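Quick one:
INPUT:
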């Protein structure tokens, strides 16, 4: 095997190159190689300065996450030792950054005396996204070089910083163009000529500020980000570590950072976040599709229907530079959709997150297809017409006629049977479901619905496409509601039971918000609008005498014109121009009356814990059934769906990982209790029973 770290000479500059694909993670072998090469560079008389650089697509993306929790190779130094060697080096050390210098990778840069970066490069300390903190001096050195307040923001959001912004902040010393190694060596030569001295961040306070200033920065951060910080563990340890940087000398504060790092690493939140990190990459790997599966090229797209959904879907393609033709019933309908898309972009431009030129370029990729025939040459067509089987069938018959051979025919249905839709065409192997989530230009989830006859290359192309349009694609099978909505149905049903039984919407929402959900089911209903499902229920009641005829509270709200936020009232009341929900005694009254009608003696002892169990365990139980049926491939697919499409707290790792953390025997026990009390809807899934019996878990089935 070739060495992952090598040493070469370029004039007076020694070059250490890290080559450990795919992302040059700091494995045992890499840390060892770095130490050995550094020692060698020190020993070479002709070498006056040392450049460290990454081979391939990136600098160093951080510690090797796969090695977490495994014992360290005793021959290999830990990262703090390597960093100390770079920092204490009597010869100048210079980091040359391209791609991403993240986590431990950027901590090496901070230990070098100077940092240069390619224009397209990025730096950052994203450890918090894995539920940990920068554990090799990052929390100590970054505040020294850029100040406590910006350092807190960078480490607690974990977001990478682009070269230009990094330069402004002081995270790097120079942005260079052209060949990075050439530029870094030239920079090093200049430093040598100028007699530049090593800069050792550990030995100076730099821009860190006094203890009082650091405490004030922490207090301000907490105050301004209270909502985002809710329930999280690592961000507070990061604050503690920065405080230690201010209070203690470096040789005492660095071990403190290590202790806090260890606490984070052992936390359930870190387990959950690391699970999601790997799960989001694992979902793209399917057992029956080879890694080198040839895919179809998607250079152009067509969309049928330019409503809210069609518009949002189109934006994803435009953002990725893929031209989109849109078919609508009339020019007016197209213009209306165009106006919405344009408005969305204009808001982003106004917020400074997009340039006007870029907006114009994206809108320029959009065109109206007056006749369906004119979309025929698109590589993929996504149908986003009204959710009605008759219409979908007719649409696919037409698409079958006009689309070129090899085009992918996708439906954005959220409920209908993709097998039935595919059967309307002469090429069911080209048909697939691409279920986007509203707002489709924002939500990261894409459920890729694989029908019985869908070809493997169509599935693989869809996964690739998801990545191109910056979504997380998860492949699921056909069933009512697919994975996400099928599970959600159980959750919503139980929330409704809870308010019949004694809770109020505000109690349910509060418990689930505190659990970490973006919002509870009632606030969510108000946001999405209550009228759509009301119309569906009315239709069903009229058509089907066996359908429960008694109106639910949501129906009564709609009868009163309370459709949710858009009408200023729904489950909650809203002040004009404000989205904050306010509990409404009138709604509580309706709820009490319904309980009385049903002859239910309302309980007043429904605690937050029961609410969480009653709403979350149905997700887990239904998830198990979905696994049994093979609708989702693995529990991790379900987790990725819930975290990316349903606001499930990522720090809990998704419903299935969370259940595992709670302990499957405990979950089953409660489900059995609810089954005894509430009947059939709580029947434990066979898979859950089996796993508990065999002492297994989802990750080790
Ligand atoms: N360790 C191990 N494997 C990693 C890895 C890492 N740090 N980063 C990526 N991979 C694998 C990934 O699983 C995938 O594998 C492949 O590389 C390509 O990744 C001491 C404690 C760098 C921006 O959190 O953000 O440093 O699926 O598909 O879209 O304080 O990967 O092909 O088998 O994501 O081009 C901090 C995590 C670590 C960075 C590239 N660093 N990585 O994105 O490719 S903690 C991070 C990323 C730390 C110190 C500590 C991204 C990327 P496979 P990919 P990409």
């Amino acid at each position: 095997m070739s060495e992952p770290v090598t040493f070469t000479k370029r004039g007076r500059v020694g070059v250490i190159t890290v080559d450990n694909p795919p992302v040059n993670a700091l494995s045992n072998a890499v840390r060892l190689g770095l130490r050995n090469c550094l020692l060698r560079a020190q020993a070479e008389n002709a070498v006056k300065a040392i450049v460290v650089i990454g081979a391939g697509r990136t600098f160093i993306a951080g510690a090797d996450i796969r090695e977490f929790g495994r014992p360290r190779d005793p021959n290999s130094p830990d990262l703090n030792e390597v960093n100390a060697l770079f920092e204490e080096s009597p010869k100048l050390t210079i980091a040359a950054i391209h791609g991403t210098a993240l986590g431990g990778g950027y901590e090496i840069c901070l230990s070098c005396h100077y940092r240069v970066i390619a224009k397209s490069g990025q730096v950052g300390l994203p450890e918090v996204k894995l539920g940990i903190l920068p554990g090799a001096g990052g929390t100590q050195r970054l505040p020294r070089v850029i100040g406590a307040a910006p350092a807190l923001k960078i480490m607690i959001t974990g977001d990478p910083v682009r070269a230009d912004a990094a330069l402004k902040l002081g995270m790097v010393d120079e942005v260079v163009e052209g060949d990075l190694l050439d530029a870094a060596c030239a920079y090093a030569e200049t430093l040598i000529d100028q007699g530049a001295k090593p800069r050792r961040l550990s030995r100076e306070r730099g821009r860190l500020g006094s203890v009082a200033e650091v405490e004030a920065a922490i207090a301000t951060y907490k105050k301004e980000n209270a909502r985002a910080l809710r329930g999280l563990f690592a961000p507070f340890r990061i604050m503690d570590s920065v405080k230690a940087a201010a209070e203690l000398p470096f040789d005492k504060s660095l071990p403190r950072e290590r202790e806090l790092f260890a606490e984070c690493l052992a936390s359930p939140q870190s387990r959950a976040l690391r699970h999601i990190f790997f799960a989001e990459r694992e979902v793209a790997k399917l057992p029956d599709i080879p890694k080198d599966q040839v895919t179809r090229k998607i250079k152009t797209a067509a969309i049928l229907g330019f409503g809210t959904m069609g518009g949002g879907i189109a934006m994803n393609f435009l953002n990725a530079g893929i031209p989109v033709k849109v078919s609508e019933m009339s020019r007016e309908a197209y213009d209306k959709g165009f106006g919405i898309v344009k408005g969305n972009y204009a808001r982003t431009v106004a917020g400074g997150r997009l340039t006007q030129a870029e907006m114009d370029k994206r809108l320029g990729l959009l065109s109206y297809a007056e006749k369906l025939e004119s979309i025929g040459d698109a590589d993929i067509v996504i149908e986003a017409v009204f959710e009605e089987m008759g219409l979908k069938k007719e649409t696919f018959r037409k698409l079958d006629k006009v689309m070129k051979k090899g085009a992918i025919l996708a439906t954005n249905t959220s409920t209908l049977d993709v097998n039935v839709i595919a059967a309307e065409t002469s090429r069911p192997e080209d048909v697939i479901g691409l279920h986007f989530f509203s707002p489709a230009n924002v939500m990261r989830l894409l459920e890729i619905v694989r029908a019985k006859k869908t070809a493997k290359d169509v599935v693989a192309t869809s996964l690739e496409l998801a990545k191109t349009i910056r979504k997380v694609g998860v492949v699921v099978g056909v069933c009512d509601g697919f994975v996400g909505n099928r599970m959600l149905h159980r959750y919503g049903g139980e929330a409704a039971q809870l308010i019949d039984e004694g809770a109020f919407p505000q109690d349910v929402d509060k418990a689930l918000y505190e659990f970490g959900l973006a919002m509870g089911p009632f606030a969510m209903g108000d946001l999405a609008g209550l009228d759509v499902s009301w119309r569906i229920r009315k239709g069903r009641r009229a058509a089907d005498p066996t359908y429960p005829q008694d109106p639910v509270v949501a129906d009564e709200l709609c009868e009163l014109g309370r459709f949710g936020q858009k009408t200023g009232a729904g489950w909650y009341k809203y002040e004009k121009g404000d989205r904050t929900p306010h509990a409404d005694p009138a709604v509580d009254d309706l709820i009490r009356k319904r309980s009385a009608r049903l002859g239910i003696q309302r309980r007043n002892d429904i605690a937050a814990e029961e609410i969480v169990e009653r709403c979350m365990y149905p997700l887990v139980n239904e998830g198990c059934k979905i696994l049994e049926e093979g609708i989702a491939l693995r529990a991790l697919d379900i987790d990725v769906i819930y975290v990316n499409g349903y606001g499930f707290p990522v720090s809990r790792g998704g419903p299935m990982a969370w259940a595992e953390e709670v302990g499957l025997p405990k979950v089953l026990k409660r489900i059995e209790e609810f089954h005894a009390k509430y009947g059939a809807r709580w029947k434990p899934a066979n898979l859950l029973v089996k796993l508990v019996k065999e002492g297994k878990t989802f990750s080790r089935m």
